[in-house]
Amino acid sequence: MRDDIIGILRGNVSDRVIEAMWRVPRELFVPRRIRHTAYEDRPLPIGEGQTISAPHMVAMMCDLLEIAEGMKVLDVGTGSGYHAAVIADLVGPEGQVYSIERIPELVLFAKKNLEAAEVKNVTVLQGDGSRGLPEYAPYDRINVAATAPKIPEPLKEQLKVGGKLVIPVGSCYQELVLVERTQEGFELEHHGGVVFVPLVGDHGFHI
């Protein structure tokens, strides 16, 4: 089944991203009762009203970010830890991923999954992802796996010059946006409609 996903991705994203997704065992990042569906190309429930993104979306977001070895990456919305694990593979042992999740149960779930997958370079923290993690900033890349009403200013501020941020934006209609920080400001690219759970927090949605 993993081969089926790789076949879908080939030609659409870089070989580096495909290789990283091949190496990361997705079945370790979904609840045991639905592991047989791990490689279906769709979002899957992971509890607490949250989902693990479809494989093609994880691949697309990683590809847009152009993640290189040795980078420091902020991952917002840890969920089960799968997206962070793929990013961790891309940055390699010299790189570091800081991943933030607001739901305590998912923080524990992600840590357990990352340990089972023997991922060493991801630090999972509980908190408001819309505020980022300023204590570890600036970041080469920022990945946001939840939709925001607008791009949170703290995340933009925590991005290095030359750095990139990918985030879904919108409520009824969501669009995937790639942000690059330049010396002059921020440049935006729009990459089509998507569907994500809401980014809840001070600079996200309020519930």
Automatic annotation (TrEMBL):
This is Protein-L-isoaspartate O-methyltransferase. GO terms for biological process: methylation. Belongs to the methyltransferase superfamily. L-isoaspartyl/D-aspartyl protein methyltransferase family. PANTHER family: PROTEIN-L-ISOASPARTATE O-METHYLTRANSFERASE, PROTEIN-L-ISOASPARTATE(D-ASPARTATE) O-METHYLTRANSFERASE. Its EC number is 2.1.1.77. It holds the Pfam family PCMT. GO terms for molecular function: protein-L-isoaspartate (D-aspartate) O-methyltransferase activity. It is found in: Cytoplasm. The active site is at 53. It comes from the Archaea. Catalyzes the methyl esterification of L-isoaspartyl residues in peptides and proteins that result from spontaneous decomposition of normal L-aspartyl and L-asparaginyl residues. It plays a role in the repair and/or degradation of damaged proteins. It comes from Candidatus Methanocrinis natronophilus. NCBIfam families: pimt, PRK00312.1, PRK13942.1.
